[in-house]
Amino acid sequence: MSLNNWQPVIGLEVHVQLATKTKLFSSSPIAFGAEPNTQASEIDLGLPGVLPVLNKEAISHALKFGCAINAEISEKVIFARKNYFYPDLPKGYQISQLDDPIVGKGSVEIKLGEKSKIIGVTRAHLEEDAGKSIHDLYSNNSAIDLNRAGTCLLEIVSEPDISSAEEAVEYLKKIHSIVTFLGISDGDMSQGSMRCDANVSVKRPNDQELGTRTELKNINSFKFVEKAIIFETDRQIKELEKGKKIIQETRLYDSKKNLTRSMRSKEEANDYRYFPEPDLIPIKISKDQINDVRKNLPELPEIMKERFMNSYELSDDNAELVTINKETASFFEEVLSYKVSPKNAVNWITGDLFALLNKNDTNISESKVNPKHIAEIIQNIEDQKISGPSAKKLLEIIWSEGGEIQELIQKEGLEQISNDDEIEKILDEVISENPKQFEQLKSGKDRLQGFFVGQVMKKTSGSASPQVVNKLLKDKLSK
Amino acid sequence: MSELINLSLTDQILGLANKSFSSREITEAYLNEIKKKESLNCFISVFEEESEEKVLIADENIAKNKARPLEGIPIAHKDIFCIKDKKTTCGSKMLSNFISPYSSEVFSKLDTAGAITIGKTNMDEFAMGSSNETSFYGNVLNPINEKFSPGGSSGGSAAAVRANLCSFATATDTGGSIRQPASFCGVTGIKPTYGRVSRWGMIAFASSLDQAGVIAKNAKDAAIALKYMSGFDQKDSTSLNEEVKDLQKEVDSDQEHIIGIPKELIENIKNDQVRDSFKNAISTLEKDGAKIEEINLPHIQYSLPAYYVIAPAECSANLARYDGIRFGHRSKSVSSLEDLYVNSRTEGFGKEVKNRIFIGTFCLSAGYYDAFYNKALKIRNLIKSDFDEAFKKVSSIAMPTCSDSSFELGSISDPVEMYEQDIYTIPANLAGLPALSIPSGTADEMPIGLQLIGNYLEEGRILNLANKFQKLTDFHEFK
Question: ipTM of this model?
Fold first, then answer.
């Protein structure tokens, strides 16, 4: 399938769960993974007679996002009821925003290799989340968990400025990095803290009008966003090339089968009958309030990256790697507080530590290896007290058993022998045990050098400094 | 002890304080009277056992001179106010099995003030109705003549006060539901300023119009009761954070009054007896020193159509939560989710409630929103400005409460004719103004009411004027 004659046009709606202490309109706590229906008060259950009270923290989170993307901020925040029936929507309506969303037009910049592109953000509004329906728990019944009902969502709607699956992923990563750097969301897609719908259409490059779009629901990872959009653009192109028309509809992405399937057509779409929420009064946002948020905005990824490149002399790539999220960036800076080389710190964090995190299927905020561990490992390597392989071994031990670096080096006998005399003694032993090979090496068979270094390492259980062994071996050969 | 139940609240408080009688005596007297007059159907629940316990505490507090302001006074709540662990039906089959797990603010405030809740009063289903005939529990009879309607929706509360079944009763008023039954039963009823009394735990009909108030024997009693119901509540975002005036003092203080008369409206009253009685009432007040001013409320004629768009629109959303899923009536004949919704709601709601849900859903539908809902909101603003303009030169506005006295039960079957019951009461709800009804004469031997509307938060002023009128007349007196 070639895209040559077709241009995808994509807009994303990203739902970000805000990291507020309590729900958007009730004082129920937000805890992921709690027993079903234990985080729901009479308000979240939509009992007769209950009333919503707006959580101010959600407003301040939304303002931070608005300021971070240089968006227009609404002077007045009005909530509206979005009416539809669903078993996990307790009130039969969702409190959302229609007119005057808290965040108006703004934009973000995405990197595509060497180039960059501006993606417009149409709006971002606050709304409450619904609960969860669980259909596979009981054989004949569905179960409803309302713990999530009423949690704060910020729905971020982009302009249809995105032209490929790759751009969509970059945009989503950008939104993810902004909200996590701002500390307004944990951004954890696996727990549903960030969910994404995509509006997808294709058109001929010269067409002025956009093609008919479909809305893809329920794409909950960076990988699925990419796959779903690729599948859907391909599907649309095939249909159009067959002379068929695209039907405006909502389609569900099936990640197991990697395809999208029709969920409901435009005709079947709900008429949400929005109207202003009479239980809440409009909230005024003052210029002072906005200025205050702007002044106290935390350092955003681009600015932080710039600073890392300037102050720590990191390459563009390295700086990008350690500013991938807020947790990695602060881990990195904490490692540096122990006065180690920034370049080594980047290598150890994004190399061995990331590999370890991957292996254990976790992220840096859950890491059992702390910045002090990494810093001490780097210091020991820099002082040639331990070897690279020993350092890797240390990381594994700390991950599984914990402990202090210095003690572990002693206990595990990982201290590197860099004393020349000691190593020379062992090297002499190896030479006398392998006289033939030594003669061959002398006569120019260079690849045997590795053999001798290896034998020394073996005898010292890897604790000899390979640099020292190499140097001594060279000395002997030149004699 | 039957004379105890005839005493005004003021005299009951005095008598209890003087230890002329006990809370036990007065409470038992009311409970006996309720049994005797069971056929009036004023109550949905009666709390004999709990009253017994509360009486012990009340009499002990009185004996120790630790009486709270309403200590030991037996009262009733309209069955729209949630009371923890008590059935709260809202007059509907839908909630005939609903035991509330929490209490309304109105209940909590009066309970804290020492009042004893002896029962919950009958009402039109979800407060929709003007005759009390839409109640799932059957209509209430007018104690003055049992063939007649007590009015609605707070018919149970008005009839209970008139039949001496409680000292006073709470009620709610969305379009006249306190004032019209007060008028029909010859008692005093006040709907305060929107936001003066918390709506927390009061089952919603139309959130922007609903307001709790009280029905009592006279203006003084109403002032005392209202004083202890009023106040800011952070659980209700529309609650007014304004100081609560001492209505008990204000009702009896020396105040000057300028009464505005909407001349055109008065001239158009079709019923001679209603018009004459109104004119007599005004001249009584004028003779007593009140100034009379003609005013103009040019948009008031559009109140009824505006109301019957806004109220049903809000009700269509407010009643969406009754879906048979978490509480309330659930149909037994269910084979799909759609069935569960449709059958539960078809079986659980009465005809009038369904009418209003249909009207409201229609008015909010795509393509009709601007023509109906938006236009109604504009009219509402015009009516507000009419009142603002009028209150620049007058301190209160007078008009009849209803266009007629009570009608025979079953005599009105056309819903629109029934809606016209509210023609004089709706404007105060649309504007959010305080308004009361006091007995001012009779038409065809049944009572009619004089309505007084005050400026925002000026409950004290209209109660003062009402009290003046009641000092000069005896229409409010009954045995």
Answer: 0.96
